């Protein structure tokens, strides 16, 4: 899945991305570290992988999603 980097805090290695519909989805240091990146700037196009939403989670584009990987989008 593709997204756009929205926020990034280098001290915690966490932040958020925007899905193509504008929905923000947070990511933690483990997701950032899994992608092998050293830095992320807002506006960069990224590829993300998400864990499936748990059963019984509210509906919506980002409801229950947990980003497990953030890396640069390559073509």
General description of the model:
The chain has 75 residues and is mainly beta. It is 8% helix and 41% strand. The two termini are 13 Å apart.
> Per the principal axes of the C-alpha atoms, what is the gross shape?
globular
Kindly report how far apart the N and C termini lie.
13 Å
Mean pLDDT: 88
Low-confidence parts: none
The amount of beta strand, in percent, is 35-45%
**Pattern of helices and strands:** EEEHEE
Radius of gyration: 12 Å
Q: Describe the biggest sheet?
A: 5 strands, antiparallel
By secondary-structure content and strand pairing, the structural class works out as mainly beta
Q: What is the count of helical runs?
A: 1
Describe how the helices and strands are arranged.
Blueprint: E1 2-9, E2 14-18, E3 24-27, H1 29-34, E4 45-51, E5 66-72
Antiparallel strand pairs: 1-2, 1-4, 2-3, 4-5
Summarize the structure.
By secondary structure, the chain is mostly beta strands.
Keywords, please?
75 residues; 5-stranded antiparallel sheet; 8% helix; 1 helix; mainly beta
């Amino acid at each position: 899945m593709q997204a756009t980097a929205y926020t990034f805090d280098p001290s915690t290695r966490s932040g958020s991305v925007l899905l193509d519909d504008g929905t923000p989805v947070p990511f933690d240091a483990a997701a950032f570290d899994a992608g092998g990146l050293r830095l992320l700037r807002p506006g960069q196009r990224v590829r993300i992988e998400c864990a499936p939403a748990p059963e019984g989670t509210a509906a919506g584009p980002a409801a229950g999603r947990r980003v497990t990987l953030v890396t640069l989008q390559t073509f």
